[in-house]
Amino acid sequence: MQVALIEWAFGFLLATLGLFVPIVLIASLGGKTRRLAIALIVGSNVVGCIVAVLCFWRETTVHLDFSAFSPFPLALGVDRLSAFFLLLICSVAVPVAIFSIEYFDLHYVEKRRNWVWTFFSLFLASMILVVTASTGFAFLVGWELMTLLTAGLILMEGDSTERRHSVFLYLLMMHAGAAAVIGSFLLFLPFSHGLDFASLRSAGRVMPQGIRTMVFLLAFLGFGTKAGIIPLHIWLPRAHPIAPSPVSALMSGVMLKTAVYGIVRFVFDFLGGGPSWFGYVVLFAGAASGLLGVLYAIAEHDLKRLLAYHSVENIGIIYLGLGASLLFLAAHSLVWASLALIAALLHTFNHALFKSLLFLGAGAISNATHTVDLEELGGLQRRMPVTGITFLIACYSIVGLPLSNGFVSEWLVFRSFLGGSLLTNTNARIVLPLMVGVLAMIGGLAAACFVKVFGVAFLGRPHSAEAEHAVEVPALMRGGMIILAAACVFIGILPGILLRPLASLAQVLIPGAGVPQETLSITRVIPWFAAIIFVVTIAVTLVKRRERMERTWACGLPGLTSRMQYTSTVFSKPIRFVFSMVYRPDRTVERLPADQPYFPASITYRSVRTTSYEKAIYRPFVELFLSAARQLRRLQTGNIQVYLLYIFLALVLLLAFLRFQK
Amino acid sequence: MKIALNILQAVLIILGAPLVRGIVARCKAFLQRRQGASIWRPYSDLAKLFRKEDLVPPTASAVFRVVPFILFATTICAVAFIPLLQPAALLASRGDFFLFVYLLAMGRFFLSLGAFDGGSAFGGMGASREALISCLAEAPFLLSFVAIAILASHADIAGMVNWTLQQNFFNVSAVHILAFTSLGMVVIAETGRMPVDNPTTHLELTMIHEAMILEYSGTRLALIEWASAIKLHAMMALLVALFFPWGMASGESIGFIALSLPLYCAKIGLLIILLAVIESGMAKLRMYLVPDFLGVASAVSVLAVIFTFLAKR
Fold it and tell me: Å from A502 to nearest chain B CA?
C-alpha cells in the first residue's frame, strides 16, 4: 500500500516536470498559467524530496516499467543510491526554482519567460531520469536530454558568436563523453542478457578482467568529461558562466553530480571495485583536478568563471574520496572503503548545496550591479546584507571550515587518508597519508580564493558606481538563498542526519562493510563545538565597549579612494607569482612612445594565461579530425553526375548486402 | 577532578599567554643588548586597550565588527586541544588534529575578511600575504601531525602525547626529529614570527599580520592581540607536548601535578630562549623567499611521513 503510494508520487514528479508543466507553459503564454506551472515545479520537487527521503532512509525500492509504451526497455527504479541523488536534485531544485521566479521575470521579456521555464522543468526531469533510470536506454536518453536542454538554456541568454562557440565546444565534449559512456554500456552486452541494471550488475562480476578494465576506462573518460576532471574540463569554465545564474547553479550544483552518480554506479555497483590501479587513476585525477582547479580559480576575477573552476576543484575532492575508497576496496579493507565512499558522497551533496548557493549569489549580484566582474564590485555587504550573509556562509562552507557542511565531508576524506596508513603490503599506505598534504593545500588555496571573493566583492568600498548604488534583491530571491544557507549550516552542525543513511548506502555498495566508527564520532563532536564557539562568541561580545566612527587613516592624504584598495588581481598576485609554473602567463608590456623609455606617455600591460598543456593534449585530435575532413572533402566534387554515381553504387552495395545476408 | 585540571590547563594557556610574549621580548632585548620592557608589559598593554574606545571606519560592515570576537572564540576553542600538565585536555580526546588545524584556519579566514573591511590598501595587502603563507603552511602543518599520528596509531592529540610519553627519550626515531623541524617552521610561519613576519614592525613593505589589524582599536584590538598571544603560547605548548612530554603528570595525584607545572615552565622557557635566539639571529626573509622556507618545511614533513613506514618495520 505504502510502496504503491510512493510509486504514484514518483510518477507524479516525473509526469509533472516532463509533461504537464511544459504542456501548460507552451499551450498558453500568459502570466497566470505560468504561476500555476511554477507552483507545480516547486510542489512536485517537494514531493520528490519526500519520495527520496522515504526511499533513502527506509530502504523502500520503487520500480516503474514503461517498456510497454516505448520501442526499447525503459524502466525507472529508485534504490538507495538513486534515492540519494534524487534527494540531491530535488532539494536543490526547490530553492533554485523559488529564486528563479523573480530572477527570470527581471531578466527576460514576457514572451521568453514561458520557454525558459519549460526548459528549466524539462532539464530537471532529464536529470531525475538519469539518476533513477534502471535500464541503459533510459539512462542514455536522460543523459542526452540533459546536455541538449542546457545548451538550449545557454543559447536562450543570447547568441553571440563567442557564445555559440562555447556551446559548440560544450556539445562536442559532451558527445565525446556520451560516446564513451555508450561504449562502456555496450561492452557489457556479450555477458549480459540486456541493458537493465540488474543483469549488468550480475554480468559485471563475471566478466573477464580485460573487459572490466575497458568498461572502467570508458566510464572514467565518459563521466570524467561530464564531471570536468582536468584535462577534460575545458568546456566547463566556458559553458557554466554564460548560462543564466539559476541554470548555472543547477549545472554546477546538480548536473555535474550525475557524473559522480554514473561513476559510482559503474565502478562500485556494476564492477564492484577492481585492481588497485583503478583507485590510483581516480585518486590522481582527483588530486590534479583539485589543485589545478583551485589555482585557476584564484587567477580569475570573473565571479562566475571563478566558481566554475571551483566546481572542478570540488569534483577533484570527490574523486579523491572515491579513489581512496577504490584503493581500500582493492586491499580488502572494507570499513575504510565505506568511510571514503561516504566522504565522497557527502561532499557531493554538500557541494550541490553551497555551489548552487554561490551561483545564486552571483545571480543576485549581477541583478543588483549588472556585472559579475569582481573588480567592479565592493562594499556590497552594507548594501545587500542578506545576500552578503548567505554568500558568506557559502564561501565558508566551500572552504571547509569547522561548523560548515564542507568541513564534515573534508574531515571524513582526511580521516580515510589517515586510515590508509593501516593497510599492509601496498604502496597505498604511503600514498594515501601523503594525500593529506594535497588536500590540505587545496583547502588552503580555496580559503585564499574565497577571502578574495568575499573581501573584494562585499567588503571595503565600492569599486564602481554600479556597486555603490546596489540595492538588495527581492524577497523570493533572498528566500531561495536563505533556504540553501540554512541547509549548509544545519548539515554542518548535525551531520548525523545524513551520515547514518549514507552508511547504510555504503553497506549496499560495499557488501560486508561495517558502519565506520568515524562517521559516528564526528556526529558527537561537532555539536559540542558549535555550542562552545557560540557561547564564547556571545560572552565576548557582551564585553563592555564604546564605539566611535572614524575615517580610515590615509597616511596623511586627504582621503582614501576606492582605487587605493586591493583588487582581486592584486590579491592573487603573490600566489600567481609563486605558482607561475602552472599559469605560464604570457606578458606584454608596451611603452609609448618607444623612443622615450623613461618618460612614457602611456604604458600598456597585458597578462594572458596560456594553457599550454591543453593545447598539447587536444591539438593532435583536432589535427587528426581536420586532416580526415580534408580527405573526405575529395568526395564532394560538386559534379551532379558523380553524386548520381554515389547513389547508384550505394544501391548496388545495399542489394549485394541483402543478397549475401540470406 | 579531571575536568577541573583540564580547565586549569586551558586557563593557564590563556592567562599565561601575554607573559610568554613578554618574556620573548625581554630575551630578545637581552640578546640585542637593550634594556627591554618589563615581562609584565603585555598585560598592561591589554588592560589599556580594553579601557579605550573602539574606532570603526565608516566603510565597515558587520563583518568588521564581529571578526575579533570570532577570532577570540576559535582561539580559545583551539586551546582546549592542548595538553599541558597531563596527557589530556578538554577536547583533546574528542576531536583530532584536523579539527585543531582547521579551527586556527577558521580564525585566520575571518581575520583576513576583517582586514578587507577597512577599505584601505593595507588590509588587503596583509590579507593577500597571509593567504599565500597560510596556503603553503597548511600541508606541512597537517603532514607533520600525520607522521606522529601514524606512529602513535592515534589521531587525537591526547593519544599522540600519551604514546610519546611511553617511549624512551633516547630512543626517539628520525620521524620525531623531522616532524619537530617541520612543525617548528610551521609554528614560526603561523604565529607570524621572524624570519617570516616581523611582529614589531609597522613598515608597509614588510608587515603581514600587523597590516591586517591596522584598522582595529580599543577592545577589538585587545581581543586580537590577546588571541595572537594565546596562539603563540598554544603552539609552543603543542610543540612541548608532542615532542617533549616527559614530566607530564601521568596520575591524578596532587604531587605529580604540582611537579609537572615547574617542569612545563622550564620546557617552555627553553623554547622561548630558542625562539628569541632565532628571531635575533635571523633577518626577515624577503616575501618571495617565504615559499622556499615553507617548501623546506613541506619536504621535511613528507620525509617524516615516508619515514614512518621505515620505522615500523
Answer: 22
Indicate if A292 and A369 belong to the same structural domain: yes
First-last CA distance in chain B: 40
What nine digits make up the cell of A198?
540488474
Tell me which residues of chain A have a pLDDT lower than 50.
none
Tell whether A321 and A404 lie within a shared domain. Answer: yes
What whole-number distance in Å separates Cα of residue B153 and Cα of residue B3? Answer: 25
Beta-sheet strands, E only, within A475-565: 547-549
- The answer to whether residues A300 and A444 belong to one domain is yes
Q: Which three cell numbers stand for residue A25?
A: 507553459
Q: Cα separation of A329 and A276, whole Å? A: 8
Confidence of residue B313 (pLDDT cuts 50, 70, 90): very low
Closest CA in chain A for residue B309? A430
Q: Encode pLDDT of A190-234 as tens digits.
A: 888 888 888 998 888 888 999 999 999 999 999 999 998 988 888
B312 pLDDT higher than 60: no
Which of B 276-295 lie inside 8 A of A, CB atoms?
Answer: 287-288, 291
Residues in contact with A394: Cβ distance below 8 Å, sequence separation at least 6, in sequence order: A354, A355, A357, A358, A361, A484, A485, A488
Buried b (16+ CB within 10 A) or exposed e, B57-74: bebbbebbbbbbbbbbbb
* Contact list, A562 vs chain B (CB under 8 Å): 119
pTM for the full predicted model: 0.93
pLDDT mean across residues, chain B: 89
Amino acid making up residue B148: I
Residues A499 and A398 grouped into a single domain: yes
B311–A contact, CB cutoff 8 A? no
Spatial distance between the Cα atoms of A617 and A549, rounded to a whole number of angstroms: 57
DSSP letter, residue A551? P
State the ipTM, two decimals.
0.94
Q: Is B48 left (phi over 0), alpha (psi -120 to 50) or beta?
A: alpha
Interface of A with B in 570-589 (CB under 8 A): 570-575, 577-578
Strand, coil or helix: A429: helix
**Nearest CA distance, A143 vs chain B (angstrom):** 38
Number of structural domains chain A divides into: 2
Cβ neighbours of A403 in B, within 8 Å:
106
Asked if residue A479 and residue A391 are part of one domain, the reply reads: yes
Among A556, A578, A600, residue at a domain's last position:
A578
Check A447 against B155: CB less than 8 A apart. Answer: no
A525: domain range?
273-540+565-578
Does the residue A118 lie in any domain?
no
Report the relative pairing of strands B54-56 and A547-549 from DSSP bridges.
parallel
Looking at the structure, tell me whether residues A500 and A622 fall in a common domain. no
In a domain, A136, yes or no: no
Concatenating the DSSP letter of every residue in A326-368 gives HHHHHTT-HHHHHHHHHHHHHHHHHHHHHHHHHHHHHHHHHHH
CB contact at 8 A, B267 and B247: yes
Do A362 and A450 fall within a single domain?
yes
In terms of domains, do A640 and A571 share one? no
Q: What angle do CA A572, A574, A575 make, to 5 degrees?
A: 65
- Contact A375/A568 with Cβ under 8 angstroms? yes
